Amino acid sequence: MDFELDKELLFLKEMVRDLVQEKVVPRAAEIDRTDEFPWDIKEDLAEHEILAMPFPEEYGGTGGKVLPMVIVVEEIAKVSCSVSMIPGAQCLGSAAIVLAGTKEQKQRFLPSLASGEKLCAYALTEPNAGSDVGGIQSFAVREGNDYVLNGTKRFISFGNIADILTVFAKVIDQNTGEKKLSCFVVEKGEGLVVRNLEHKMGVKGTPTAELFFDNMRVPAEDLLGAEGDGFKIAMQVLDKTRAEVAAQALGLAQGALDVAVQYARDRVQFGNPIGKFQAIQFKLADMEMKTQASRYLTYVAADKYDRKAHDRGKYTAMAKAFTSDTAMEVTTEAIQVLGGYGYSEEYPVERMFRDAKIQQIYEGTNEIQRIVIARSLLGRGF
Ligand SMILES: Cc1cc2nc3c(=O)[nH]c(=O)nc-3n(C[C@H](O)[C@H](O)[C@H](O)COP(=O)(O)OP(=O)(O)OC[C@H]3O[C@@H](n4cnc5c(N)ncnc54)[C@H](O)[C@@H]3O)c2cc1C
């Protein structure tokens, strides 16, 4: 498949590149240092309709296609992975509504997310249920026109600042005791307590919250799909958004490679730019090969998703795992090319290295991606 981007996507890429140069480049190191969410940049992203990208036009969005989103996320992540997570989280948090919501639910929740007025979050993980989604312990019991929700969620990106959350919990049938994993749209309010914010090694400025649901009443009309649809919805969301994690990782790899190439031209040792040494040239060549291979795989996965190809889930899993492994390798090698300066905050590659690590972990660890890929080859029984 030839992946020359069409005119429209190239225009989008340039628009985002200019925005990033003006607004993100001057702030990227500071966001990492202060670990504060950049509200001003969130406004800039909203103004440029980047937060509208995950949504269909009829709900105030710009179309909801994954490939343009991937292009945008990659471009931002070249400079700041943390900032690229703002549109990333807006997509992740809302995807269950986009994929499984009724017209009424979409009309109620999506326009204020598309405008950027509200933020959202995806609350799947729990202290005792990470990879093993079936082990979720949060539960909901039907009481009249509401469900009453109890439980704890861990590691929820933007969970403390989100206005709207998609929350996974097991509905307990009071007659039979049967537990059905389900998905709810939950608006911030009474009964939702932010317990703790993580101190993380990277993606600083993207708050990661522990949330506690204490007898929170959720209107029954805010159940997405039917009781018991939760697992299917959670997996459908991740099939989509893993392409965006791949794009974050791709941006990190490209950003680190760009810094390393420039440094190899400029840094002189033994009377020569270090780029003259074959040991450095081979590193740069390997970094370029893996980054370009990641780009093709990521774009193909996004395009397959948009075309609803039957194997899109395998491709987004492959793009996520391959590209995040690449980002880890490329950022590590970039530090090596820069020597001691690479290990210092003076250059951005140490930040990129810290930001790359999480790409191998969230939205399903790379071990879980490999299980998804292998099952697509061997069949469900494996
Ligand atoms: C910064 C950050 C942001 C996050 N944002 C969100 C968010 O917005 N929403 C959300 O719901 N979650 C979020 N998460 C949670 C993240 O998705 C989980 O951490 C991840 O899915 C792994 O779960 P775990 O940490 O419980 O690890 P575990 O599942 O306990 O895994 C531990 C190790 O065992 C391996 N392992 C587990 N099972 C298997 C198996 N069957 N075969 C082989 N290896 C296995 C894993 O790959 C891993 O190496 C975030 C996490 C972080 C750190």
Task: Give an overview of the whole structure.
The protein has 382 residues and is an alpha+beta fold. It has three domains: 7-118, Orthogonal Bundle (Butyryl-Coa Dehydrogenase, subunit A, domain 1); 121-228, Butyryl-CoA Dehydrogenase, subunit A, domain 2 (Beta Barrel), CATH 2.40.110.10; 231-378, Butyryl-CoA Dehydrogenase, subunit A, domain 3 (Up-down Bundle), CATH 1.20.140.10. Helices cover 51% and strands 16% of the residues. It contains eleven helices and ten strands. The protein has helices at residues 7-24, 28-34, 39-47, 66-77, 81-100, 103-114, 230-266, 278-306, 312-338, 349-359, 366-378; strands spanning 120-123, 139-143, 146-157, 164-172, 179-187, 192-197, 208-219, 223-224, 268-269, 272-273. Strands 1, 2, 3, 4, 5, 6, 7 and 8 form an eight-stranded mixed sheet that branches. The chain has a two-stranded antiparallel sheet with strand order 9-10. A hairpin with a 2-residue loop joins strand 9 and strand 10 (272-273). The longest helix is centred in the middle third of the chain and has 37 residues, at 230-266. The radius of gyration is 21 Å and the shape is globular. Bound molecules: flavin-adenine dinucleotide (FAD). Flavin-adenine dinucleotide (FAD) is lined by residues 121-125, 130-131, 155-157, 200, 203, 208, 358, 361-365, 367-368.
Bound molecules: flavin-adenine dinucleotide
The helix/strand order is HHHHHHEEEEEEEEHEEHHHH
The major β-sheet equals:
8 strands, mixed
CATH superfamily of the largest domain: Butyryl-CoA Dehydrogenase, subunit A, domain 3
- Which percent range fits the helix content? 40-55%
> Structural class of the secondary structure composition?
alpha+beta
Write the CATH fold name of the largest domain: Butyryl-CoA Dehydrogenase, subunit A, domain 3
Compute the separation of the termini in Å.
Answer: 31 Å
Mean pLDDT: 97
* Tally of individual domains: 3
Number of strands: 10
Give the overall shape, derived from the CA principal axes: globular
